[in-house]
Amino acid sequence: MFRRLFSIGATLVVCALVSIPRGQAAPDPGAFVGELGNQGIQALSSGVPPQQRIARFRDLFQSDFDVTGIGRFAIGRYWQAYTPAQQQEFLGLFKEYTAVAYADRLKEYGGAQFSVTGVQNNGDETVVTSQVIRPNGQPAQIDWHLIDDNGTYKVTDVYVDRVSMKITQRDEFAKVIQNNGGRPDALLAVMRQKLREGQQTPVR
User: What's the predicted TM-score (pTM) here?
Assistant: First the structure.
């Protein structure tokens, strides 16, 4: 269930990523997410070449998401076990792996209906709730967690039907490490191998 929800959430995140022009901030969190969702779903279709989708996601994930924060959360306590060089390698692999792993899943959301349903403060974050209705599919509730980063918004997490994407990713990464003798460097090796193979499935 977590893997399915993470796949759905990651797909919607990637759909959102391609839409907003760089350097153009939305006037408020609801408008920011609304533009991301609506334009992203319209822009991503089966006619977009896979490598183009990967390139868009790679660039915009770096631009509009808190890559370092999400990556460090996903690796959890193992972050401290990495050398500084391994930490930087992990963040680079994390960005690239996310782009490759989920770009191919975008086309199934072509023609979906996206709408923002609410905005609320949650401590230092702003949570924007939304709903996506796919053709011939069940609606999904998507909650976007945003921070104000010097006047621009950064996405820190996305909840799909109340399941956190970054918590799910952290659980998967921890399982890879545990299945490889508890060695944090094993995750780096698995991610490098996945990227060499061009596989677009979650790490195991």
Answer: 0.78
